[in-house]
Amino acid sequence: KGSGATSAADMWAVGVMLHKATFNTDPHIAGGAYHCPPHDSEGLVHLLHGLLQVDPKQRLSVNDALSYPYFTASFVRQLYENKQILESDSKLELLRQHVKSLQENRQVVLMRVRRKQLVADVVSIFQEMEGDTALYPLNVRFIGEPGVDAGGLTSELYTEFFNRLLEGGGVPREAGTPDEDQPQASASGGAGDEDPNGDGGEPL
After folding, report:
1. What CATH number is associated with residue 25?
2. What is the pLDDT of residues 5-38, one digit of tens each?
3. N or C: which end of the chain has fewer CB within 10 A?
4. Alpha helices in the chain (DSSP H)
């Protein structure tokens, strides 16, 4: 296999095998030239064209073939060039869009409670919830108090609720005076449905 002719024939055979392994067909030779089917890897296409040169003198040698990017470029780099690996900025942007979509489409419960009757109000509201409503995130308003719940009011509600349960030994029978606003909860279609007046919408 030391002759140039034999080496060229071997490289042709390598090209044929590589083509068949990639496309599961025989190479298409027409007009004295090899015609490679479309493929995502430009490096592979260039290599096949070099291996399947009809003129043996123009065909790649072993050393030439091994120096081609198809063999020298890293697999990760090939995936990156073929856009099969996303850049960090693209990943972050997709994550932001996904989180924004979840926030816009999620179901939340707008809950209005009286601080003095917090335990009784919370228990009463949860008892009236139907289906999966009790699983929705809360958006809490304390009646008569300013504030927009960005997570802090919900945390405060749970903390105060359990502290009062532990201190009182159970659920007290609390009742508001006739002139006080009554507790309410309503399901909202998205986190963006704010309740700026603290009215909480229609009661469940």
Report:
1. 1.10.510.10
2. 568 899 999 999 999 999 999 999 999 999 999 9
3. N
4. 4-23, 42-51, 62-66, 69-72, 75-81, 88-105, 118-128, 152-168
Say what the pLDDT of residue 199 is. Answer: 45
> What b/e readout covers 146-159, taking b as 16+ CB neighbours within 10 angstroms?
eeebeeebeebbee
Q: How far apart are the C-alpha atoms of 106 and 50, rounded to whole Å?
A: 56
- Terminal Cα-to-Cα distance of the chain (whole angstroms): 87
3-state secondary structure 99-139: HHHHHHHCCEEEEEECCCCHHHHHHHHHHHCCCCHHHCCEE
Residue 153 maps to a domain: yes
What is the average per-residue pLDDT within 106-135?
A: 84
| Predicted structure pTM score | 0.38
Q: How far is CA 138 from the centre of its chain?
A: 24
Other CB atoms within 10 A of residue 50 CB = 19
Mark whether 117 and 64 lie in a shared domain.
no
The parent domain of residue 127 ranges over 105-188
Determine the longest span between alpha carbons in the chain, in angstroms.
Answer: 107
Give the pLDDT score at 196. Answer: 42
